[in-house]
Design brief:
The chain has six helices and seven strands, in the order βαβαβββαβααβα. By secondary structure, the chain is of the alpha/beta class. Helix 1 crosses helix 6 and helix 4 crosses helix 5. It is globular and about 45 Å long. The strands form two sheets. It has a five-stranded parallel sheet, sandwiched between helices. Helix content is 38%, strand content 17%. The protein has one domain: Rossmann fold, CATH 3.40.50.300.
């Protein structure tokens, strides 16, 4: 099994590119989302104003994630609970992921743990300007998560953007393929698929 790490800052459009990979590879690719490895909210760090910070590598139970990746690499399926973010109205459900030719590990911090570097075969970085990503996040979090624009901007300035700079953007220059998801993301997707097929 080969592993594609798909990373990019919040609002960069990882889901769009991921859907294109799924369309191309079908059953040849399984997807493992870091979202499903968030620690319980009660265990997450809070900032000086009492806001939960979801944007640090330690919010992910990466030891569990690495164990699951290795289990898939050894040809055994895994079972996990889907993540329900921090809103009580959403229900978690169990999903089973089967081993396949490719495992796509997608999430903000997919490369933030030393164990991942030796496991990843292809690194795809999804790129978009910070102001574009902020607007996408305002639109998404207002609709899907019930956040006000003020809440989204606070998280962006105090949690999201600092995490981009510290943990995500440094990988852009080490990526095998950078997908520009502001202009012609289809071309970047084509290049990423081509790299995987090679």
């Amino acid at each position: 099994m080969k592993i594609l790490a798909l990373i990019g800052g919040s609002g960069s459009g990882k889901s769009t590119v991921l859907n294109g990979i799924r369309d191309h590879f079908g059953a040849r690719a399984a997807v493992l989302s870091l979202d499903n490895y968030y620690r319980p909210k009660s265990e997450l760090p809070v900032d000086e104003n009492g806001w939960t910070n979801f944007d640090l590598p330690e919010v992910i139970d990466h030891d569990h994630m690495i164990r699951d990746i290795d289990q898939l690499r050894n040809g055994r399926p895994i079972e996990l609970d889907t993540y329900t973010y921090n809103r009580d109205v959403m229900k978690s459900e169990k999903v089973v992921i089967e081993p396949s030719e490719w495992l796509v590990v997608e999430g903000l911090f997919a490369m933030a743990y030393p164990e991942m570097k030796e496991r990843v075969d292809v690194l795809g970085f999804i790129d978009a300007p910070a102001d574009v990503r902020l607007q996408r996040r305002i639109d998404r979090d207002g609709t899907e998560r019930g956040y006000s624009e003020e809440e989204v901007r606070y998280q962006w300035e105090n949690h999201v953007r600092p995490a981009d700079i510290a943990y995500i953007e440094p990988w852009k220059h080490q990526a095998d393929v950078v997908v520009d998801n502001h202009h012609q993301w289809e071309e970047g997707l084509r290049m990423l698929i081509q790299k995987m097929e090679e």
